[in-house]
């Protein structure tokens, strides 16, 4: 594969928070974009086949700041659904999967992509942390050569980091081609990550979350205390309600995709905030 060959047509599969905005940013870069989502019937829900993708489109149009550079970029996106329009991916030279974070769903989609896409298409998965080799399991060697993690951060137009996660099977020329595309066309800073759970940014985030959870348990605090009092005070984004740990306790989600010095500052603030809460009890 020629690593300097630009991409012209991209298919983004999954029009949720990430897929819809990744599609928008690819359109900003001048690509023709097919944005496809499941038809609601596929998950036993009522609604017209395009209703999910249309809802996502409406949400995109209302976002502020906008995920689009201008109306010309918008006009480069074509909407569709997996039931009626999946064969549109045949023309794509880049396919980015951004469906729900479930290994079974992603694997099933990869099987479908392999059966439909061109043998030359590069396949990226936007998983937050599932090892890419597991997502590619069951696929041919030829497919696995073209498969890598393309991990964007939210919001994809504005956050500079794009982690690329090759597996042992990914052709290095594929990684180079996507890296060039990311840098030159999408304006991204590329970090090539090891294929380990959560890669780089989210791995740091998961670590800091564990630090906070240990501290919370040591201090006998509840997740709500931490979210409302500690995280707010430490000025760290945290949302209660995420499930973690044994017993399905309500947990926390720290969203770090930050360089080390900023993480250190955040952890220091977190320590101080915990100390304050301890004192006031
Ligand atoms: N939200 C973030 O900040 C963020 C950042 C980086 C990576 N990611 C990853 O991006 C991917 C998408 O996340 P998101 O935040 O856009 O999620 P989301 O919930 O907003 O969207 C999920 C998408 O998956 C589709 N979907 C749901 N059930 C499905 C099924 N059974 N089969 C096929 N498609 C199905 C939905 O219709 C929707 O398009 C996930 O792998 C997530 O881990 C998310």
Structural account:
This protein is of the alpha/beta class and 281 residues long. It folds into two domains: 184 residues, 3-Layer(aba) Sandwich (Rossmann fold); 79 residues, no CATH class. 42% of the residues lie in helices and 16% in strands. The protein is built from eleven helices and ten strands. The strands form two sheets. It has an eight-stranded mixed β-sheet with strand order 3-2-1-4-5-6-7-8, sandwiched between helices. It has a two-stranded antiparallel ribbon with strand order 9-10. Helix 8 links the parallel strand 7 and strand 8. The longest helix has 20 residues. The chain is globular and about 60 Å long. Bound molecules: nicotinamide-adenine-dinucleotide. Nicotinamide-adenine-dinucleotide binds next to helix 1.
What's the SSE blueprint?
Blueprint lengths: L8 E5 L3 H12 L3 E6 L13 H12 L8 H4 L2 E5 H4 L8 E4 L5 H14 L5 E4 L6 H4 L5 H5 L1 E6 L8 E6 L5 H14 L3 E4 L8 H18 L4 H11 L8 E2 L6 E2 L8 H20 L2
Helix pairs in contact: 1-2, 9-11, 10-11
Nicotinamide-adenine-dinucleotide binds next to helix 1.
């Amino acid at each position: 594969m020629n690593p300097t060959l630009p991409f012209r047509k991209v298919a983004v599969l999954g029009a949720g928070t990430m897929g819809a905005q990744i599609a928008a940013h690819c359109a900003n870069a001048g690509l023709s974009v097919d944005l496809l989502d499941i038809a609601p019937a596929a998950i036993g829900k009522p609604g017209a086949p395009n209703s999910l993708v249309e809802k996502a489109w409406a949400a995109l149009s209302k976002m502020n700041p906008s995920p689009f550079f201008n109306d010309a970029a918008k006009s480069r996106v074509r909407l569709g659904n997996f039931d009626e329009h999946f064969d549109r991916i045949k023309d794509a030279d880049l396919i980015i999967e951004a469906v729900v974070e479930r290994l079974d769903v992603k694997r099933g989609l990869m099987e479908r992509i392999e059966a439909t896409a061109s043998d030359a298409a590069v396949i990226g998965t936007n998983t937050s942390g599932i090892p890419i080799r597991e997502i590619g399991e069951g696929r041919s060697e030829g497919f696995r050569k073209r498969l890598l993690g393309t991990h964007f951060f939210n919001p994809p137009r504005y956050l500079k980091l794009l982690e690329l996660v090759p597996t042992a099977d990914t052709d290095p020329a594929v990684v180079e081609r996507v890296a060039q595309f990311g840098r030159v066309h999408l304006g991204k800073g590329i970090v090539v990550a090891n294929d380990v759970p959560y890669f780089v940014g989210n791995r740091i985030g998961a670590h800091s979350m564990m630090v906070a959870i240990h501290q919370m348990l040591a201090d006998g605090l509840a997740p709500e205390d931490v979210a409302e009092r500690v995280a707010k005070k430490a000025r760290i984004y945290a949302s209660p309600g995420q499930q973690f740990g044994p017993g399905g306790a309500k947990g926390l989600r720290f969203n770090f995709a930050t360089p080390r010095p900023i993480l250190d500052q955040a952890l220091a603030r977190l320590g101080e905030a915990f100390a304050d809460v301890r004192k006031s009890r």
